[in-house]
Amino acid sequence: MSNFKFCPECGFKFDKEYKFCPECGYKLGGSVTEEKPLFDFSDDTQDYDDYKGFADMVKAKQGSQIDAEPLRRATVLCLRGEFEEAEKLTQAYIDKYYDNVEGYITLLRVHSKDFSEFEGEQIEKDIKIITKLGKGGVDDDDYKDYLKAREDYLADKKVKEEQAKKREEEKKKAAEEKRKAEEEKRKLEEEKKRVEEENRKAEEKKKEQKQKEEKTAKSSKTKATNTVQNVTLTPNETKELQAAIKKMDKYWGIGGTQKQKAYEVLKKYAERGVAEAQYKIILNWQLQDSHRVKWLEKAAKQGHVEAQLALGRCYYYGWGTKTDLQKALELLNECAPKAKDSFVLALTYESLGQYDEAIKWYKQNLEWNSKSTFSWFCMGRTYEHKKDYAKALECYNHCPKTDKETKEAIERVRKLI
Fold it and tell me: Could you tell me whether strands 5-6 and 13-14 are parallel, antiparallel, or unpaired per DSSP bridges?
């Protein structure tokens, strides 16, 4: 281990043999205390430039003043990027002048890479010491500029961190919304598959039912001779009846001689019991609703499909008679498959709270009448009654989006899903 010696003048520690103290120039050894500069600058040599700082330091020491030359040298070293050497020089200065604020400012310059960096544990430590030592204020422009630049840097960093945090939150929010949308889409797809599976399983049964209905169903334009029960018409009477039906179909919404003549012919055959005449006579808008119902009842009893369907509507809506859902149900169950129109039958089941039956007949009506968007709407409403909002939304999506009620229904069920 090396034996250290100390200068009796300045306390500088060294482990080599010197005649003069390298720090203050004090003559070492012997009993004579002769002060002499460490170097002789009698000649104008390069040594003068290299060691002028040390000579000034010695001179300052002899004058009992703090020498700032090491700090100036450390500053130059920082400018040259030699921070390790600058730190050694500055630290040695601080060891000697431990309460000198300029020394710590220079040390801060070193640690901050010539005031170019603003963060770090050592930088924080240096600033705290400078603040404590310079209670009355630090009069150093470089230090003041650095503090201002550091304040701006930290403020800008805080803003960027807040912006980054906000972006991250927005990103998370968008991801969550996307996840929910995908989840909703997945549920709808699963529901669609389930419905398709149900439809597939019921397909064979429906086909069989269709074939049966096609065999028993009669056309809505069945000739009068085919709807007459126990009534025999001559060819001329048949021709007269068909001409009256044609005129009534043409002039039913307006008055005039042609419609009146058609009405009189139809009334004649209706009174004779011809079901087609009993059904077509209701097209005379001058008849009271109660009279229409009477003629429909007579035609319906003879099995006239369209008359049965029309009479079922009257019982459901209360047209010309009291509302009677049970009678409507009985008639419509009989004629709907033949007429291939089950819309009012489905409405009747919905009104009675038999939602599964209602949905069944809405679906059947859509098979017969694929353009019946109102069937989709009513089926969606029925699913709402059942609180099956996903299926309700699927039904409403088949309806025209321009319709006000459809828009309101879609917004309503989306909030409930």
Answer: antiparallel
Overall pTM > 0.85: no
For the chain, the helix, strand and coil percentages under 3-state DSSP, each to the nearest 5: 70, 0, 30
Kindly list the distances between the CA atom of residue 368 and the CA atoms of 22, 46, 199, 206, 338, in Å, as whole numbers in the listed order: 113, 112, 15, 12, 11
DSSP β-bridge partners for residue 6: 13
Confidence of residue 13 (pLDDT cuts 50, 70, 90): low
CB 89 within 8 A of CB 22: no
The total number of residues written for the chain in this structure: 417
Using CA atoms, how far residue 182 sits from 173, 194, 392, in Å, is 14, 18, 19
Residue 124 exposed, middle or buried by CB count within 10 Å (0-12, 13-18, 19+): exposed
Instruction: Give the separation between CA 304 and CA 297, rounded to whole angstroms.
Output: 10
Q: In the block, which residue shows the tokens 């090491």?
A: 70
Q: Which of 399, 348, 353 is nearest to 374 (CA)?
A: 399
CATH architecture of 340-417: Alpha Horseshoe (1.25)
Distance CA 399, CA 366 (A): 13
Helix (H, G, I), strand (E, B) or coil at 211: helix
Cα–Cα distance, 345 to 352 (Å, whole number): 11
- Give the whole-angstrom CA distance, residue 154 versus residue 162: 12
Comma-separated ranges of CATH 1.25.40.10 domains in the chain: 340-417
Q: Do the Cβ atoms of 61 and 52 come closer than 8 Å?
A: no
Amino acid occupying residue 178 = K
Amino acid found at 237: E
Cα–Cα separations (whole angstroms), residue 151 to 109, 145, 228: 16, 10, 104
DSSP secondary structure of 175-188 = HHHHHHHHHHHHHH
% of the chain exceeding 70 in pLDDT: 79
pLDDT category of residue 387 using cuts at 50, 70 and 90: very high
Cα-based torsion angle of the residue sequence 87, 91, 93, 96 in order, rounded to the nearest 10 degrees: -170
- How deeply is 119 buried, as exposed, middle or buried, from its count of CB atoms within 10 A (0-12, 13-18, 19+)? exposed
Distances (CA, A) of 236 to 82, 200, 225, 232, 337: 126, 52, 12, 12, 34
The first and second tokens of residue 292, run together, are: 């229409």
- Residue pLDDT, tens place only, 17-71: 766 666 666 667 643 333 333 333 333 333 333 334 443 443 444 333 456 788 8
Q: Confirm if 315 and 323 have CB atoms less than 8 A apart.
A: yes
